[in-house]
Every structure is written in C-alpha cells, then in structure tokens.
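As a warm-up, study this chain.
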Amino acid sequence: MLRFAFPLLLLAASPFAAADRADILVADFEGDAYAEGWKSTGSAFGKGPARGTLPNQMPVSGYLGKGLVNSYLDGDGSTGTLTSSEFKIERKYINFLVGGGKHAKTCINLLVDGKVVRTATGPNDKPGGSEHLDWHTWDVSAFAGKPATIQIVDEEKGGWGHINVDHIVMSDKKKQAERMTRPIVAEKKYLHLPVKNGAAKRHMTISVRHDVRPFREQVRDVVVREFDIELADGVEPDFWVFVDVSAFKGKTLIVKTMLPADSKALASLKLADDVPDAEKVYREKHRPLFHFTSRVGWLNDPNGLVYHDGEWHLFYQHNPYGREWGNMHWGHATSKDLFRWKEHDIGLYPKKYGDWAFSGSAVVDKENTSGWGTKEKPPLVLAYTSTGRGECIAFSTDNGRSWKEYDKNPVVKHTGRDPKLIWHEKAKHWVMAVYTEADKKQWIAFYTSPDLKEWKFASRIEGFFECPDLFELPVNEKQDETKWVLYAADGKYLVGEFDGKEFKPDFKEKKQLWHGRFYAAQTFDNTPQWKPEGWNGPHPPAKRVRRVQIGWAQGITFPGMPFNQQMTVPVELQLLLTPNGPALHAHPVTELKSLREEKPVIDIKKLPAVTWGVDPATGMMRETLANDLDAFDLYALLSFKGAKTVGLDLRGTKLTYDVAKETLTVGNVTAPLKLRRPTLELRILMDRGSVEVFADGGRVAFSVAAVPDEKNRKLEVFSTGGDVSTRRFELYKMKSAWEK
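Now compare it with the structure written out below.
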C-alpha cells in the first residue's frame, strides 16, 4: 500500500494538475466591437457582437452575458466570415456555445496550420426550431502547443442560414452534453418533467425494460415515448409537463437524454397520480373562461371533431411537452355542451419520433361498413396524416378512449396532408377530401371508399391549401334545397355541387366569413337532431341537424402561462341567400348562454336615442357603459344617423364601423361590411385572450387576439360626426366553463 502513497501525494499537491488548471477565455463577445485581431468579411457579422435577438429573429437564448456572435444581421440572406487572431492551444478541450442553422456553410471552424481540423454547426434545419445556444466541445489534445485560429462562417442564404456563437473557452473539462440515464419504476400514473422556456431542446426517450429469456440477466429496452423538451436544468422550472405511464405500471422505465455531466435534471423527475399543479390548472391568471385551451402545452388545428353517445369529441394538434409547436400528438377532450370540456389522456400518439400525427378527422361508421364494430355499437374511425407514411386510418370501439391502427396503413400515399372523412348519402360511399400537391400546384383531392379501407382517387380541384372541410347545408333552412361547401385552412370557401366524386362550384370566386385569428377550422360529424331556440333564420324547422364549427385561433398566446394557443368559440353555420348567392353565416352556439351570469349588467331595449357626451379635444361622442369587466357576452343594436364612424372600446380593443368606407375594424383586422340600413348589429364575445365579433346577423365574423389590459376594464360607446342610439344593448358577464 505504501508504494502508491508517494505519487498520489505528488499529484494532489501539484498546482498544475490538469483537473485544477483554470480555463482560458478565447472570446466572450461582450464588447461593443470585436476584440483586437478579430476580422470580419461580408455583411452577416456587422461591426461588433449582437446584443441578443436581431430584428425579425425568433428569440435568442442560452448565451452568456450581454453579447454574442449572431449572423442573422439583415436576415438569412446576409453572408460573411469572422476570424480570430492566432492563439496557442493550451488545454485538452475547446468549449463554446453554438446555435443557428444546421448547414455545412453555417459553421464554426478550428484552423491549425491553415487547415480546418474541427468544425461544428447549429442544430436547426427546419421550421419550429429554437434559437437556443448550447455547449459544444472539441477534443484538441492532438494539437497541444500549436497555434490556431477560430473561423465563424455564414455562407448560406436559405432558411436557418445563420449561426450564433458565444463564450469560446479552452478547458480541461468538457461542457458538451453527454448521454445520461435514469431508471424509474412506474408505480404511479404520471411522470412529471420540469420545463424552462428557452432552454436547450433535449431529445428524450422513455423505454420499457424487458427481460430476455431464457437468460434473465439479459434485457431489452423498448422505446415507448420519444420527444424533444426544453428541460429545466439547475434552474426553477417555468412549469411542469407529464407523461402518462399507466400502461407500464410496475415496469422499469429507462429515461435517457443528453445533459452536461454535472446536471441534476433527471434527478428532478418525479412520479405522481395526478397531473402537475392539478389544483391550479384552469384557474391560471390568463386562462380563457369559455374558449378551449389545453391544460398544458401547445395547441393548434382541431382534429377528429365528432359527436357520439352524448359526447362532443374534440381532438387537436398538441405538443404535450412544451409551449411551442413540435412533437405532434392528438390531444383529446370531450364535452356534453361544447364548453365544459374534460381532457383525457393523449388521443393519438405518433408512430415513432419524426413520424408525427398531423391533422385529420373522425366519423361514426353507423352501418359498420368497416367491420370494426357492429351496427348496434358502431366504431369511431379517424384518418390522419402520418408524416413518415401518408394518410392513415385508425378505429375505436370504446368511444374514442383508445385507438387501433388499420394494419394496412397508409391507405393513401401522396404529397399532402389533412384528410377529411365524410359519408356521402346519395352516392353511398365514403369520401376523403385531402390537401395534395401535384403539377407544382395546390389542390383538394377526393378519394372514395366503400369501407374506409380501400381508397380510389376520384378528382381534384385547384386553389386550396391545407385542412379541407366539406359539408352540405340547406339554403335558407329549406331542407329540400341544399348546397355543398368546400372549405380550407384560411377560411375561404366555395359553394357548389358535389356528387360524391367531383366538386363543381357555382362561382369561381371564393367567399369569406371569418377574418383575423382563424385557421384550420373543422365541423363536427354526426351531430344530433336539434330544435333551435330563438333561431334567427327565416325558416327554422322543428328539428334539424346542426353544422357546428370550431377553428384554431392562430397566434393567440398567453404570457407566462403553461399553455399556449386557443380554439375559437363553437359556432353554428347557416347558408343564407345574399345578393351574391348563398353565403355562410355564423352564430355562437346557444349552449354558450349557460355560462352567462343570471342577470345582465346592462339591459337596454327599445329606448329613445341617447346622445353621449362630447370630448372637446377630438369632437368624439363617448360614453362609458360598464366598468370592472372581465369576460363578457354582448348583443348590441346601434342606429346611427349622419355619423362618420360608430363603435365600441372593448377594454382597449377598438371596434369601429366606417360609414363611408363600409368597413368594420376590430383591433387591427378590417373586413368589408355593406349595411342595408344605418343599423349595426353586433354579437361580441370577450375572453381573456380574444375578442370575437359576429356582425349583421353573423354575415361577417372576427377573431382577434386581445389579452386585455388589466387596468382597463371599461366598455365605452363612441361615434364621430353624428348621433348614435341604442335600440338594444344587452351585456352579460361570463362564468368560467372550468368551474366544477
């Protein structure tokens, strides 16, 4: 034992031991100009380090201090190089932070003897990436003592054609992430994971460990969940997300990801029988009261809208693991009344990482044409885009709680996505309307099937992009006179005839109902017979089938919340005659009234004209009608005579009708609205993230982002150039749909 003591003591005492040597900073980019000796060419790097995010760039994070190299100056089209002065390699490793494009021409190089001996790029090459910088390490021990230079290159002009670099340092320790593993026995339903917005995206796998017989000491790990996550590491999480592991109860889960050697992130994962912060979910500061939002994570396109056995099913594009787009799953919620939603576990998982579950639709196979159920208990069937395979079919015999894939998927292979399924009653076959790309053009293609399994191409129509919807409606509520409506993601549509194979529009020019934050809308399949209550249509029947629509309120976000994006309010569609032919009209579904407080805050009916006070500075007539408002439902019928403009100030969001221009503007969204008489009819829904407006009997609809100013809780009426009278003004405060 003694013979080993002496050299060990020498090593411990040496102040120059490799593990104890201080790091050597090559560059930290904190100055207003690049350090002496650094030289730039071209325009991408400018005259000095950037101070974070540049104009029109996604938020940049992960750099140290205030400055970094950022070649996004003037966008991805700029190019150039940035080269350091010469330095001597005096440590085993060179560590640096890097982000930006994953291109050979957006890189950081180490040059020794004028040759590139090490290189690295940013991690991103597609939309939805992050501008986060993460540590990268070069082993440079082979070049010890040699002179070297750093060259940062941006010679790429396409998407992600830039690079971000910061804090280049020589060290005897690696900073780059390494694969780390943690075994966890699935003793509870959920595995909680901490998220920090803007952190490095970590690729995580969760595997189930299986014994391989006959040798029990051999094991096989089968990946069951795989995703990217901005994992909180050594910092307080912004929120927690969760993975349902109940299907693997009692089994050993192996969690793997790349992390720095000193990371404690995997140790912070925890099991629980409830979702994170369960007592706070749906009670958050900015949670909308009556618009659907996912309890946590990102939300976009509504999918698989179907009514069955007394439940409205809402599936939707969903990232369960973060606030931003990615990891596309289908979320799932059900409701008895289209507002009081109950969220379920993930409705549809992607087949594997990278083969994401994109948008689609669902139907009830009433006649059991597929053979996957019975006529007494028909199956639910969905179609979705598998990004790695094509259009795929799955079915459920337990009312949408679980799904089994058709074993001959994909059923349609093409360049496109977003299949919409319908049953065509006259043709007696199924139809799939799906976005497709062919001949360098964009189309909606129609396929037909007798059984939801075997599909044949029938026809296509040009000029539509993404997320089609196809449905039949009576004209002016006359059940013996119907038209078909072909819809796409942007909300523009054609009215015409559809024989089950080919759509023939009545007019070539598309019409538009919705304006603003409205995208990828779908309507429900199999809606029940229903008797309208107080219906505005000219010929309301005793009972009829409803056409209920929900869209994604694209771009409506909620600061500081664990959820992101919302759906639009469910509306019922009518096809009514106008001077330009049949056109869609929208009304919020009548179930919304159940969330009104019992008594209205304001209730003015058939009163004489009211002239409001005049602002001496602007000449505008203005009157405050209500204070201390949160979410509300307002019906207003305003008459104006001689006025140039008339409108409402909705807690800071202006609604203005311009009489001369015949336009209605809500916030920053304007649409044409030619009134038949000097009367403006409005139904206005204000929630914590949006304002929705239905004007002139639902002929024009708006969805506008509006996180209300907390200091401004007023509702005001205003006009310029003339008087305004209230023929009717009825306002209700709204209760939360999430209250139990």
